[in-house]
Design a protein that fits this description.
1 helix; mainly beta; Immunoglobulin-like; four-stranded antiparallel sheet
Amino acid sequence: MKPRSGALVVLAFGLGGGFFACTGTDPATGAGTTGGVTYTADTRVLESFPVQLRTTVRALNSSREGARLELSSGCAVQLAAYRDAQRTQLSWDQSRIQMCTMALQIIDIAPGAARNFEGSTDARAILGDSLPDGTYFLTAVMHVNGRKIEIPAGSATLGVPR
């Protein structure tokens, strides 16, 4: 893909961070485990205008027992964008603008099995008319079993025509 005005380029996937709301976080991959389920996330770019981001969270049941995930929102994955790699300077939070149903989703995952969940946005939604073009560090946010889980989902250089 050739960068162009309004293009979104993903620079890295699965960057580690110290904020993962799970136990056993691997700083090299950003993977974290809670309740026997290991969560990882990556973000890909779809060619369109404005350029679209698709973030996929993979929930792998690494235990020997079945796992039950209770998602407390109709939006399984929402995204957040930070200005720093440590993800301490929140710039944009999709949960503040996206309307989701309050429908409880119950997902059962067999031992050794995985389930994917997706979230999406675009460069214009993140930058709006106030955030500068530049590199942003993405986080996938899920609400599972009453806990907020934040999974590093890569970084991207964002830009939109102004």
